[in-house]
């Protein structure tokens, strides 16, 4: 019996909705599914999950996969330690805890004390810690909580010595951290006006405002620092400089990496906000300051990044001074430690760390354990001690202590995972996209692979928003490789791997380049005898979900299975929900006639063709996703099931009490991955 006959899909709610876009009539029959709270949508979700989970439960290998995931996942995971005042802090997960626990200790060899355990805040682990910041004196913790994966946060304050929360309770915060003043009496944060309770997960978010909260006072008394009623799309990040003198206000607009930079002198109560960088033309990130001189990492006249100094007393562009020039590698981030710049570069999508003096002279390159990703090197201006983590596809996140004076790394925390990394190998290949562009791809697999065209492959990509994908360890991918699978990671245009030019080559009117790069990766894997279409699965989340949706609608013949997660599938209405308007800087706007032509040409929802045999597909989303609203996945699933004319399953898995992915409890993550791999084991005919 074929899968098609075996599966009976629920009837999807429809209407006769037709919209006019610049003279083009576009039907949107599944518009009713945009309302997540309607009776018919809720019934549809329940019916779809019944079909999907029924299908997954029949896969014999699923329980075995889940058990292996659970066993491998059960190892201690440590974050990097950091210091404020006279205390150290770090996060630790014992292995299978739903959320990591925040600890504090007076010295690195002292007995740690639990400061905040998010696992105690809900029975099912769906309340997550979404932000933390420690006061300058090390006495107070401000922390953000999100419920069921929502982007909405509530912030509270805890006395670190007693472990007791103060009365401070801040609400309607989204896309914001908190930054303490040096006197530890309060902090800056950004919030939106209170939304309507019934539609808070769908309503658009405009007019963010920057506030100062004084400890011990109600939120209603918070001081408004900056807002712009003439700029509804502007958002504000407020950060206090290490010397405590300035509040740096980074102004963002949508998802565009280009920003403005304003500042306010905190030593003068009457000081006005000064607009230093006044045009959205480049990215500017403040590293630190020497009195009136601000150091920036920027891509201004340097698409791969450089370090410049701007004296606020002489801020004209002709007075800007280059400290570290643009390199062949991409400059991802910079910090100052031991009065030296620590520069984090990407070289062909893997980490390279260089240290310079404050005049820009190279002191040394940090020797890393291998081809992978390094993160950390945080701390205060005069710290001689810092920490960094290193990870690769076969190296779990390992923490090193680094001596800024001697340049020596010493092992600090090494996870113990029940596998032998020597059984696996990673290689980086470069392939040509259809326009000749050279694109890198990492391949990781068990040693001794046979290039006979029969290997099951999971090809992953993102390709957007200036996001760089570099090597990282994943228990999920390890289980896939243990079953004989190959994990392939393609560094597509639209990402940040090669700087802003690489990003811009995959956005707006050039978005098709991203899909072409991914399709070319699949074709390279087939041409080089790693796999064949029937054994090739593709996956990606959010913008990567759009990538998967676009590729299966453009080349349904090329793939055996597809796993689009929380994807942007309706490119004509994405800007009408929550923060979706912010993505028009990346995708363009359907309200613009030229952008509409581009978006309509690849929008996954609108490119499905009735009577086509599509690859086996399992769409995943969550009922509380207020980043990419679930309507994208709901409508795409309904349309796919109606158009599909093959034997392969077309399923949607809808997580409940979860959001876009951040803060998802460990138990839910393991369940979802077990379902994902079980689906591929069955549809790609993987022998387990």
Automatic annotation (TrEMBL):
UniProt cross-references to SUPFAM superfamilies, sorted A to Z: alpha/beta-Hydrolases (SSF53474), Peptidase/esterase 'gauge' domain (SSF50993)
Ranges where the record places region Disordered: 1-33
Domain Peptidase S9 prolyl oligopeptidase catalytic residue range list: 472-685
Reactions this protein catalyses: Hydrolysis of Pro-|-Xaa >> Ala-|-Xaa in oligopeptides
Catalytic activity, EC: 3.4.21.26
InterPro entries, per database record: AB_hydrolase_fold, Pept_S9_AS, Pept_S9A_N, Peptidase_S9_cat, Peptidase_S9A, Prolyl_oligopep/macrocyclase
Taxonomy, superkingdom: Bacteria
Name of this protein: prolyl oligopeptidase
Organism: Brasilonema octagenarum UFV-OR1
